[in-house]
Amino acid sequence: MFFYSVEHNLRDNAAKIGEHLHEINATKLGYSSKGDRPKGKGFCQRDLLVIFDEAIKIKDYIEDMPDILVLAENVGPDKVSDLTTNIIYEELLEFTMGIIAKYDLNIELRKKRKWIFDVDIQEWQKKEILLPCIDNDEILFIPDKLTASYEIFSYENVYNQLVYPFYKTNTSIHGLIRLLKNNEERPDCKKIKEKYPIRRQTVREFKQQYTDRYKTYKDEMIKDHWRQ
Q: What pTM did the predictor assign?
């Protein structure tokens, strides 16, 4: 529904999806920069609309959430992790209950009414559910591969692992080389990074020009990530 809204520029639809979004502290996830103190700003509908507005600007470049995370400005793992956690909350709760049962953990279960996003009907519903709590605080366990994926699909990683190595290897594209004393040619790394700086715009231009290479890289990253 979100990508349909982006494709057809339906901001009201995106706002509906974000109607009951909130920061889920039960996951204990945090993506503040090292040394920063938490800003105390909870995730909400406004943050989803930021993602929507940035996605609209580059909708010709994107096909899925990894593309948004890599290519859209002002969208990082903090917003994407909060959005994902809201949408798949019931699945995470089921995963948590499974871990509790598997390891016979002594964790209190409390009955509460919460707004839950029903992925089948694409709507929010208020449900009464049992929540695992420790010291009165709700707790949710998250698969480690899910949390790792938020960082894997960053424009910095794509640049460092795909874009820059490609331009460094294929010097005939830009002719940025330097001659050693023995007349041996080497890539001029400094000039390559100046011409193709580590920015989202650089990655977007690379995706547009070398679409197949970008797609192959992304597919391999997804496959290898979940195979580990």
A: 0.74
- Report how far residue 116's alpha carbon sits from residue 99's, in angstroms, rounded to the nearest whole number: 21
Burial class (CB in 10 A: 0-12, 13-18, 19+), 100: middle
Q: State the virtual CA torsion across 46, 47, 48, 54 in degrees, nearest 10.
A: 110
Encode pLDDT of 144-196 as tens digits. 767 666 667 789 999 999 999 999 999 999 999 999 988 899 999 999 999 99
204-219 confidence digits (pLDDT tens): 999 999 999 999 998 8
Task: State the CB neighbour count (10 A cutoff) for residue 78.
Answer: 19
- Burial (0-12, 13-18, 19+ Cβ within 10 Å), 111: exposed
Please, which residues bridge with residue 129 across strands?
Answer: 112
What are the residues whose beta carbons fall under 8 Å from the beta carbon of 110, sequence distance 6 or more? 130, 131, 133
* Residue 195: how many other CB atoms lie within 10 Å: 12
Query: In angstroms, rounded to a whole number, what is the distance separating the alpha carbons of residues 25 and 137?
Result: 9
> Is the CB of residue 51 less than 8 Å from the CB of residue 83?
yes
Task: Say how far apart CA 120 and CA 95 lie, in whole Å.
Answer: 18
* CA pair distance 21, 175, nearest whole angstrom: 49
